[in-house]
Amino acid sequence: MGGLTSALCPVLERCDGVWVSWNPNALGSEDDDDHIREHQGDGIPFPVIQVGLRKAEVRGYYNGFCNRALWPLCHTVLRCVTPRLDYWQDFRTINDRFADVIASRSRSCDVIWIHDYHLMLVPAAMRRRLDPKHRIGYFHHVPFPNVRVLKAFPWHRQLLKGLLGADSIGFHTPDYASNFIECCNELLGCDTRSEPGTINHGKYRTVVRARPIGVDAKSFQALAEQRDVQNDAIEIRRKHRCERFVLSVDRLDYTKGILERIEAIRALFARIPQCRGIVTFMQVAVPTRTDVPEYQQYRAKVEAAVDALNAEFSHDDWKPMIYRNEPMDRRELVAHYIAADVTCVTPLADGMNLVASEYCASRSDGDGCLVLSSQAGAATTLGEHALSVDVRKQESIINGILQALTMSEAERAQRMAKLRSVVLNNTTDSWLAKCLGDIQQPQPAEPDELAALIKSGHARRGDGAERARPGASRERPATHSSRVPAKRAPAVNAPPPH
Ligand code: ADP
Known about the structure:
17% strand; 19 helices; 5-stranded mixed beta sheet; alpha/beta
């Protein structure tokens, strides 16, 4: 369950690809070496090669380094970053195992496209194993932290070098791309000034682009136009006695701002009693990463907050929040999207957020209103026409919800038309074409992208990251293309924690 799977399954189907995935249950004992399985079938419309992991490796690699170190690091939730040496060792082992498996199955004409932070070392590991004719791409589906945050992480140089094995690297937003370029410049001393959006390192060059992912908009629209799905939407509103229905759909993750949203809803009902009995919120929160302590604690807090909200305000057979924690199939999800007067997407940080786009794609009736956090990657494409909120301020969330609920029909229609135009024009297909183009034959950055990169470079001028670099000139040119390469990376003195 999650954005990456939703996005990539249709892509693999269309481009005749092979998915190399993990198999968390494949290996039992320490001496069990049968770590590769290949299969086709089981309703999966493309071949899958599975790389086996032992249970202890799943704990160290996936639950540990990926979910307790890299995920919070990339989302800048520093209190949750647990950078243990044993986790790091497992991360290296598993990344090498992936590289071995891919290298053993690749022909030189294959394009290798590596996805997400779980495999940040694989591009360089592949480069060491394959000849330079192979084209290697990497896509980072989560935010990329700024220099100040990354440089405090013990293995930042290895992570950056791991990524630089790729010919091209894609990020969802110009800000993330620009953070990465800045990190390579400041922490590795790479040349980033010869060409905008290009990093030169040794005899290699890596092209960096902002490529915001889209959704399979037509399939959402087609479902939304089915009569029985529309009837399901009517039934959802009837069943929950919704005069006004506000929806949120998230994985149960502390970056999604679920707790902060529930607190804002509580404040809203306390302040405006007229909303009670009229406005019904639904929180769909599917548990993920359930073996990770931070997720167990977060789930307990969210469920306690929902209970407290309902205990405080429920009356007769109305309750302020309906809470669902099971997955829905696509049809049911779309029925909820078209039932919702408002959808609230208010993460504290989010690489992109596909729910925002799926909601708009499903509203072929032209109605509905999107409340969107300015911290979501999706804000770069949808923020102008959504109701943009600052999730760090409760007042802003409350105002966003109230403004959505009281917006005129004409304004709703106008905003939704613009949102839909963005979503229908930036689909999974167009994202795929751009990313594969970058991997196979990188073109110079497009003018609008260049402008965005330059703008984000300006925005960061003189922040803590710049000041933290010994000897850094405050007067240095603002764009990445004109940055002075650092001679050497600043030292990180802290020993890796155990
Ligand atoms: P993330 O990538 O962090 O999981 P996104 O919002 O980008 O967040 O993607 C979440 C994806 O998971 C969306 O495609 C959404 O439709 C799907 N999803 C989330 N919750 C559910 C649910 N309860 N049932 C079905 N699909 C869900």
